[in-house]
Amino acid sequence: MAERVYLDWNATTPLRNEARAAMSAAFDLAGNPSSIHLEGRAARKLIEDARLVVAAAVGAEARNVVFTSGGTESNALALQPGLKGAGGDPLRRLVVSAIEHVSVLSGGQFVSRQPVEVAPVTRDGIVDFNALRTMLADQPPALVSIMLANNESGVIQPVSEAADIVHDAGGLLHVDAVQALGKIAIDLRALGADLLSVSAHKLGGPKGVGAIVLAHDPQDFAPLLRGGGQERNRRAGTENVAGIAGFGAAVAAAIPSLEREMTRLTHLRNQLEDALAADGDVTIFGANQARLPNTTLFAAPGIRAETAVIAFDLEGIAVSSGSACSSGKVTPSHVLKAMQVRSELVLGAIRLSSGYLTSETDIERCLEAWRKLRGVLGKG
Ligand code: PLP
Known about the structure:
The protein is of the alpha/beta class. The protein has helices at about 15-25, 40-60, 70-80, 100-105, 130-135, 160-170, 190, 230-235, 240-255, 260-275, 305-315, 335-340, 345, 360-375; strands spanning about 5, 65-70, 95, 115-120, 140-145, 170-175, 195-200, 210-215, 285, 295-300, 315-320, 320, 325, 330, 350-355. Helix 2 packs parallel to helix 9 (about 240-255). The chain binds pyridoxal-5'-phosphate.
């Protein structure tokens, strides 16, 4: 039987060998990283080594990297009402873009205190900066959350432009870079981000570990849970030593080959999209925008995404629908709805996302399966 082809790297990625080895070694350490004895210091060293690697990957200072249980927690930790803007007052408003991950849209710690204000995006999936400017003209200043790369469309936001708008209005900018780390270069300062979320499992690290990275050292940054003073009093609880070591190892493995992989995956993506577009009736979402090199979100008339995902799966290919599926119910993608895509295409959106193990043969097999599937399901 032919090997499976995995094209769902934006959902999660296979564990890198380097991460597996680092975790395996960490599991053998007995110490608590907060203990001062030899065993504790050995565990501490793994965490601090990983912190240096993650910091370097995003252009931050190591002391400003706070390890968490993943992107969801990082986002919740970032979206806290106590943070102070340039004027020194706590930011009491939260503005997020309409295409954010649900963990941002839910508003983190703001949830019980303030309604989340949602900034619209253009048909191309880019935050509407005029609308953002108007929203931020109202006082008081806001904490604003805009993702670097969208998990469904792969569209990359011009974050540094957003940062200028946010800062001019006295606010702070949080950037969810969960889908960007390991796929494109990230420089916290060039982006103008004040806070940045990352997650290990999107680049070959383990699931359940991530970080919130701070551009500066806000005194007012508070932990979500009360407990020990770990992570410089910003995130209580004994650290996930093996997970953090695996995260560091995955980042260390991914970054040196980043440019080469970007070129390779862009080439594969173009091959894939040229072949899809040859059908004449396929829509590739965000096609005119800067996008992640590994992501294609597309739809064809008359093909429902759930049916296509199952048909691909039967052909040995793992892909995803652009629609979020939870508790067995498929809900139309809020990202495509925000991009004003018509509902038939929203329900047909299929996401193909690749990674460092994806080969040209994988793309060919995917295209073969697509042709077969179209033959069976018919043209719209
Ligand atoms: N943010 C984005 C853009 C994501 O794609 C995801 C995961 O899919 C998350 C946040 C949540 O990350 P985690 O799965 O590490 O909680």
